[in-house]
Every structure is written in structure tokens, then in C-alpha cells.
Amino acid sequence: MFSKLAALTLSLWFWSVVAVPTAEDSSLERRARASVYSKCTVAKTVALTFDDGPYVYAYDIVKALDAAGAKGTFFVNGNNYRCIYDEDSVKRVKYVYNHGHQLASHTWAHKDLTTLSWDNIHDEMWRVEQALVRITGAYPAFMRPPYGNYNNLVLDASGIRGQSVVIWDFDSEDSLGASVATSENLYKSRISAKPSSILALNHETVETTAHQVLPYAIQRLQAAGYKLVTLAECLGKKPYQSVVAPSTRDSSWVC
């Protein structure tokens, strides 16, 4: 495991490359262990989140949200289903961002972070963060660990990076192979329970989620009086640690 000095050196090196946090935030001693959020804190809000992109259904999900005056949050990988630097993937990431939806980290290659060493955890984190900054200029304030798995090492690494960790309190079960009817019934049951808020897990890579379950969920949630907002809005926080001008593609944009 890294010493404190080595960890600080890594942190400072990363910030110098990505160039996003202020100097006063770059000290390891001021980085507490990351907070973990599993539910929204603002009443009558719903955060619809979508994991595992950028993928082909990003456009349709955004269009469905936009048509309803809703916002979503996209937890993207760097090299999972697609390489984030592929021309089509870059276009999808920009489309999501430019339409006012939130981007967040789902790490680089969707590995179980609890099985990795300290430096490999950082590698999984910074590579996708760097990609998002290059493509959009936005440095994410939130990270969702693949499979929802985390330990103190993951929380410490996220804390050093200035990020919060996000899980969920509702699962549409689309990644588990749930049918459309099952996912819709799960939404219906959750809404009927009248929770103060909902932090919903969905997947950008599931066709039926994009084209059938999402329109159903949007209609039912709004009819029940919920406001569909970004994760940051449902927590009353900022979506990004900072935003700078995006970069121009060069030879380093590879997976």
C-alpha cells in the first residue's frame, strides 16, 4: 500500500494533469473519507440514474427525459461496452452533457474495486475522470462503484479525489434480466409506497429500459408528484468539482 507521501504525490500529480480542483483542495490531509449516498435528501425528487454507458441508447434516453422536462444522471465507464474515446462514444457523452444531464464516474473498466490494490483503484478512477474532462471539461463530483461494491480503501481513494460515492435505494433490476413487466411493477410498487424520494438504478445498455420502462416510469413518477432531477439536485449538491474548456482530440485519446 502507498505511504502517505506516495498517495499525496499521486494526488498532486493527478490534479496537475487534469487541472480542476483548487490548490486549497489538493492536500491529502484535508481529504476526508468519501461520503456514501444511497438516497436523495431533497423531498419529492427522483434521481433516475443510468449505468454502464456511453452506449447506443443514450440518445433515446435523453430524448425521453427532455420530452418530459426531466433530468437524468449517467454513470459512465471508460472501457466497458465501448471505448469512451471512440468517435460515437464521444458524441454520446457530449450529447448527454450538452442537454443538461449529469455525468458521473462508473470507473474505467467496470472492475470490482474491492478486489484491487490502492494504486489500481486510483487507476480505475482517474482514467475515466480524465476522459470526461477531456471530452466535456467537467470533472465529476460523484462516483458509483461497479456492482455497488466498496470498502474503506475505495472510500479513502474517492475522498482523496474529492468525490462522493453513490449507490441507490431502488433497482429496476434491468441488469438482472428483469422483464419489462417486472421492472414496471417494481416502479409501480415503489411509487405506491409514497417514499419521500427515490434514487433509481437503471442501465443505459438495456434496450427495454430505454424504450419501454423509462417512458412508463417517467409518466408514473410525475403523475405521483415527483420532480425528476439530476443526482446532484436531489442531494442539494454540485454535479462537478469544476468545469474547464474541453480538450481537442489528439493521439492520447485511446483505450
From TrEMBL:
Coiled coil: none annotated. Its cofactor is Co(2+). It comes from Hypholoma sublateritium (strain FD-334 SS-4). Residues 44-229 form the NodB homology domain. This is Carbohydrate esterase family 4 protein. GO terms for molecular function: hydrolase activity, acting on carbon-nitrogen (but not peptide) bonds; metal ion binding. One of its GO terms (cellular component) is plasma membrane. It is a lipid-anchor; GPI-anchor. Pfam families: Polysacc_deac_1.
